[in-house]
Amino acid sequence: MPALFADGATSDPPLADSYRALLRSGGIAHPPEESLSPVLERDLPMIDIECLITTGGEGGASSMRKKKACADAMARAASEWGFFQVTNHGVGKELLEEMRKEQARLFRLPFETKRKAGLLNGSYRWGNPTATSLRQLSWSEAFHVPLASISGRDCDYGKLSSLRGVMQEVADAMSRVADAVAGALAEKLGQEAGSALFPAGCDGTTCFLRLNRYPACPFAPDTFGLVPHTDSDFLTILCQDQVGGLQLMKDSRWVAVKPHPDALIVNIGDLFQAWSNNRYKSVEHKVVANAKAERFSVAYFLCPSYDAPVGTCGEPSPYRSFTFGEYRRKVQDDVKRTGKKIGLPNFLKHPPIVDGLK
């Protein structure tokens, strides 16, 4: 049964129950101090990628110059920010609006229906079941769907008969963007054009589409919509609405990302940072809760198969060899053990020496 707020309104999912339980158990009432300091709103680097997406049209030297300028801009942003925005990306505005409508219908379903094992292949997530303090509570819900299951016969869409087709179309469109961007960034680090597809081990069966909803939160000053984290993939393509709330770490300060109606956001994941030998940065980011408005977003995660080695753009690499499955298992173990993700430092060939430890 949905939880009641102080004014009698209901919470679906029952995030208010989680909040109060953590408060009663001694969970702190405020996020980390740095999240309470003044936050600047900034425009991310904006890059037109039409020359990477379209086929045909003009060729020759002019086309090559445009592609080089585009790749140079993305590589610079990936190194300096870890994030950038792309326009003329080929994902239709009407398609994204249709996706938003389908998301709203999906998340309006009763909580018990959403968490039913069969719905969207049991991919429903909400809050954070391992949270031990409010610093670890995410005021959000999501369906984290493997691409392989979207068109699968055993994937239950309930009465939302049109959701499957829209999700598949969005996944296909975002996949084209992710492949083009990742390929161009890899070329900047010496990956030969026309060689084996990058990243190795990634295809339509290994990636994920995540549908997110951040409900309005009466405890907004004290609560994260999504806790600070880095992404455990190669690349993330994000479409967010105009509510805002995404923040990233830049120069040791949180920066609020100004929404842009025609742009998709791209961010580097942990695997790409490792593959690039730290040339590209997987940057910590979070979503802040909003007291008045709910927020929707959809994210495409470019992931390899679990047994795929992450590899490197060249030796020497600061990281030892590891697979995506090994990385994911270590992240999950650390979260269960410490309440937070450690990530790439676990895989350094020469871990840093901690003061006081031998």
UniProtKB/TrEMBL annotation:
Reaction(s) catalysed (UniProt annotation): gibberellin A1 + 2-oxoglutarate + O2 = gibberellin A8 + succinate + CO2
Molecular functions per Gene Ontology: gibberellin 2-beta-dioxygenase activity; metal ion binding
Cofactor(s) demanded: L-ascorbate
Listed PROSITE patterns: FE2OG_OXY (PS51471)
GO CC term (a single one): nucleus
Biological processes annotated in GO: gibberellic acid homeostasis; gibberellin catabolic process
Gene3D superfamilies per the UniProt record, alphabetical: B-lactam Antibiotic, Isopenicillin N Synthase, Chain (2.60.120.330)
InterPro entries xrefs: DIOX_N, IPNS-like_FE2OG_OXY, IPNS-like_sf, Iron_ascorbate_oxido_reductase, Oxoglu/Fe-dep_dioxygenase_dom
Keyword Cell cycle: no
Keyword terms of this UniProt record: Dioxygenase, Iron, Metal-binding, Oxidoreductase
Entry EC no(s): 1.14.11.13
Residues annotated as domain Fe2OG dioxygenase: 203-304
Family: Belongs to the iron/ascorbate-dependent oxidoreductase family. GA2OX subfamily.
Name this polypeptide is given: gibberellin 2beta-dioxygenase
The species this protein was found in: Brachypodium distachyon (Purple false brome)
